[in-house]
Records
---
Amino acid sequence: MTKTIVVTSGKGGVGKTTTSASIATGLARRGFKTVVIDFDVGLRNLDLIMGCERRVVYDLVNLVNQESSLHQTLIKDKRLENLYILPASQTRDKDALTIEGIARVMHKLKKAEFDYIICDSPAGIEKGAKMALYFADEAIVTTNPEVSSVRDSDRILGILQSESKRSKMNEDPVKEHLLITRYNPARVKDGQMLSVDDIVDLLAIPLLGIIPESPSVLESSNAGKPVILDDESEAGQAYSDAIDRLLGEAKPHRFMEVQKKGILKRIFG
Amino acid sequence: MGIFRFFRSRNEDASAKVAKDRLQVLIAHERSDRSGPDFLPMLRKDILDVIKKYVDVGDDSVSVNVEQQDACDVLELNITLPEENAGNITPSAAARKRAAERRAALSGR
């Protein structure tokens, strides 16, 4: 049974693509056949974060327009056996996508026996974002501890509840998950940043994970390697925990407290 | 500066608290806007425009809600008139102008 998960946020720059890349990679690493689709037509970036930007031949718009086959369009990840990337078009705009066209693509992916389809949504609440969430069974709402991001997340939750296929067909609602990214426990402690509790309180959806602000996120994107593969980094470990929770495992949340630096770390940084 | 920050009370002027309070109000407001039928915000605006033709009221003086009671939907309208006008409603500038024109037309006849 294929599960479709949208990674969305409303606001831009909060970590949707970073999250999509790591969630897809994490699921593939657990043995699930996974595809991650970039819905940001015109501004594709998932290929860069996944490190496959030089292997893009066909894209989502070609596939929607039946100009290429699924086999031709999917890029097989070089690191993981079960992982595929479906890049967005860089030359077209969001109007090139239609619900009917995406429905055909989703049907093909289901026939190809994918376990997970991860949809990386563009920012905003326009057509591209609505297409990305339309077919979702579950949604990962990516939120920064910051007023505009929280507000936009609430807005996108409203859209999930009224404009997804599940809501239109009166099926069970889309399962919502909150993922807090760029969390800085030290600033929370000082009262300068909204806390996990504040955000959960405001948005009132279950917490999937807390990704601490970490230099390894930038380093990983520089290298074109999803941060979840960096097992040493806190961000990588936090994404890995989020995968466990996504798969139904109860795992305590980490990285909410200020890490005490040892004497060696204080000196050598 | 560090020492001043150390002694400063952490909760009273903590900006995160301000952020949360502001968001609580805003999100509640925006949720109520989208919970009802699509036309509610437009209906609210039209009603506000009609009232403004006659009385000076603020932009947030009209609230429109749909509530479910048993089998039927109840449309609840709440119009708050300015307090200083309690018992003595002042007509809006537009209404006064129309009245003046009407009188001028009558007396000119």
---
Amino acid sequence: MAATQEEIVKGLAEIVNEIAGIPVEDVKLDKSFTDDLDVDSLSMVEVVVAAEERFDVKIPDEDVKNLKTVGDASDYILKHQG
Amino acid sequence: MTSKIKPAQGAPYARIMGVGGYRPTRVVPNEEILKHIDSSDEWIRSRSGIATRHWAGPDETVAMMSVEAAGKAIADAGLTPEQIGAVIVSTVSHFKQTPAIATEIAHRIGAGKPAAFDISAGCAGFGYGLTLARGMVTDGSAEYVLVIGVERLSDLTDLEDRATAFLFGDGAGAVIVGPAKEPAIGPTVWGSEGDKSETIKQTLAWDVYRTTPVPGGDGPEERTAPEAVRYPAITQEGQAVFRWAVFEMAKVAQQALDAAGVSPDDLDVFIPHQANMRIIDSMVKTLKLPESVTVARDVETTGNTSAASIPLAMERLLATGQAKSGDTALVIGFGAGLVYAATVVTLP
């Protein structure tokens, strides 16, 4: 069953926590991965790959650069999840 | 008539018998890199784990560094240069298309008339060379093969590109592959992904500088480089390379372990291509290697030396006592092409 936006944000928060050590409660829709959450371009790749596995979605390299905020990522996953 | 032809016959197995390295004398700290780019020591270290690298001086040519590394490897193997039956050199930074640099190196080390040739397989070059050498020893083409990975990547570095200026280093690493009674080089898991050939590449082909008449053309002016043409350098798509290197190459590394019948718990040493500390750390995590495995982290003080990185890291691990002769090591190279090669070896 497809995940809801709430479930996606919760999942992303756990992933960001695991990869960058950011508290889960800091991961909110309007937060920028690089500016607010200390996720650099390489960690972002790890976040994307973890999200792909968790939500059964493909996020190609050329789309990764458009995922600036947690909201961008959750919208993308909501739209493309299998 | 079809005559009966004697088959080539070699040793039952092959092994790495000796290793040697050469690092240029000049050590270049991140501070020097910052002269040309807007960045910081902290940024470079956090993105790459690189603190210093060696850059070759005018006398430290591709041939000179190779000869130095080869001499050490031959001595380490307990051989003399005349015993070398073949020389394989992997490099992307020898700037003459022909002749191969391998022949000059073979001559300068005093190896007589061995088979000698260059290969181009980027950062997987060491694994490609090792695989060829194993085949040559076991089919009888040569008893002892000298495999060299050598680069002067400072010559192909754009010092004003903040994404790559800090990445590359120079040096040479060499091994001797010879006969063995027991298997000491496992099956190679290797391949190429040409659909990703643009991911890591030299920006321009050398013929952009052509000023002499072009075959079939009207005159010299056709291909003359515009003044604005930037000197060719190696560029890469950082995120795409990182994803491929960490997640796809971890699968290849696992396949090499499986092919050799070695479990992670039986592994002593992991020597991945020294591309970037972040790639190494993520690969170790993805592979779930036990903490008992020694991981090569030579990139911190050597930078990315492409085909030279694995033998250089191997030599340092052995020289510092972090690894010892007889240890079981997983080696994996991956890079421009894209190409990759992984295998399990017994350390010399």
